[in-house]
Amino acid sequence: MAKKKLTTASGRPYFEKQDSMTVGPKGPILLQDYYLHEQMAHFNRERIPERVVHAKGSGAFGTFRVTHDITRYTKAKLFSKPGNKCRVFARFSTVGGERGSADTERDPRGFAVKFYTEEGNWDLVGNNTPVFFIKDPKKFADFIHTQKRDPKTNLISQTMRWDFWSLNPESLHQVLILFSDRGTPDGYRKMNGYGSHTFSMINDKNERVWVKYHFKTLQGIHNLTAQQAEELKGKDPDYSQRDLLNAIEKGDYPQWALKIQVMTEEQAKHFRWNPFDLTKVWPHSEYPLIDVGILELNEIPANYFADVEQAAFNPSNLIDGLDVSPDKMLQGRLLSYPDAHRYRLGVNYEQIPVNRPICPAHNYQRDGFMTVNGNHGSAPNYYPNSFDDIEPDKKYKIPSFNVESNLADTYDRNENDDDHYTQPGLLFRKVMTDQERKNTVANIVDAMQQIDGPKRDEIISRQLGHFAKADRELAIGVAKGLNSPFDVDKI
Ligand code: NDP
Ligand code: HEM
């Protein structure tokens, strides 16, 4: 086979790769050695900003196949009949660590899936937990600061973390999941994924239902013990990447069953918690899981940077028949992600192959850095015009939420809005096994022991108060482990 010629970026064949062009064999380098400059300059620009959260991750392509009929809930073409398929790209991640951090840190795991459908991209940008630490986007930046490094010491600080959590008791549900064994999943294949927020579906009669998405792993749930996770941080910091890569390359394709929970608008009015509160789940016994389809990952991208690092997921990438809800966190995320992508990847990030829809995009967006799609050629760049045949189509009109009955206001004032304790209590008492309860307490003690400084006792006793309101035994167990004089009967 004929060998390929080494060239400059502009395609000029080049004669020498190893030695710079010099004045004589020992002389200084000539300014005209363009290949050398190009190589050094390009290298200096190899790094793009890492994601401000979820910087460390792994990705794979695959397929999603619809197995059950859900047309009574949604008119989305993807779900029009069982057997429909589309290509997907999924990216899993840890949240707080930098791009080089260890995969087995105790942290939620990102679980983001891009569905390339005939009617545009649908991104479901979830986590491996059904709830989150906060329920208002105004708190997000402050919360994330506590998961990152201390401004002075540049160290991870359990003091910052527990100070924030203890002052924001709405975090308790997610904190408990984080410190259970599910906080250290055994790679990315053996964990569930959750859309977490309440979304909505709209059917062909324009009726809306509220929906939660669940991806149940078909590999079974497997977690690492705290000790295993700790050891792997040193032995194999890229453990989850290796696990996903190895499984897919040997044909052992991981799969998840996509299921939904559905709540009618009427049911939502009477739900005992705010159905749009991201710190709460909908009990399965009242809102059972409904089968939808199977997600399978079967292709590792040929180039990590091209596809995994440049992937841009966006909760506002929705398709006709799938919509948002009044969940404040979701509403905040609709703005935050495209903004983050414009900063990290540039204004034309949707033109990068991994993000590009498989259907054509017809609009009047033009120019900007890195326009690589031909910029719509000579087509008109304004609307309305007398030349093209692009028109908005009324059939895609999104029905409004029922705000006359002040859904949002009603739920804002829900009397159970400050109930941060019932669901974590159920999780600890009813769902966890004895061993899981033991591990959860031990994991919490291990982290809280590291709280230091003048506010140590105050932070510990505030947090113990929250544990006690969720479950007495939980608070007693943690207090005992910390040798704290905390008196659970005073709560
Ligand atoms: P169920 O008994 O019907 O369901 C319990 C759920 O808890 C299952 O989905 C199970 O996941 C999951 N689970 C088990 N161990 C853990 C853990 N350590 N951390 C997080 N989730 C875990 O109960 P309910 O629906 O009535 O909910 C009771 C409690 O279960 C909730 O308060 C919540 O804390 C938790 N939960 C509920 C979910 C929901 O959507 N209703 C989802 C996840 C958790 P799996 O089936 O995969 O083993
Ligand atoms: C990534 C913001 C809550 C899941 C990100 C990024 C930002 C962000 C800015 C980086 C995007 C990028 O540069 O590519 C926020 C804000 C939130 C919020 C403002 C709350 C208001 C959540 C919640 C979930 C979640 C609740 C899960 C349910 C993810 C995932 C990624 C991510 C999975 C990584 C996506 C990928 O793999 O590229 N978030 N986030 N986030 N977020 Fe959030």
UniProtKB/TrEMBL annotation:
Catalytic reactions of this protein: 2 H2O2 = O2 + 2 H2O
Source superkingdom: Bacteria
Biological process terms in GO annotation: hydrogen peroxide catabolic process; response to hydrogen peroxide
The keyword Membrane appears for this protein: no
Cofactors, names only: heme
Family the UniProt entry places it in: Belongs to the catalase family.
Stated name of the protein: catalase
UniProt organism field: Thermophagus xiamenensis
Higher taxonomy: Bacteria, Pseudomonadati, Bacteroidota, Bacteroidia, Marinilabiliales
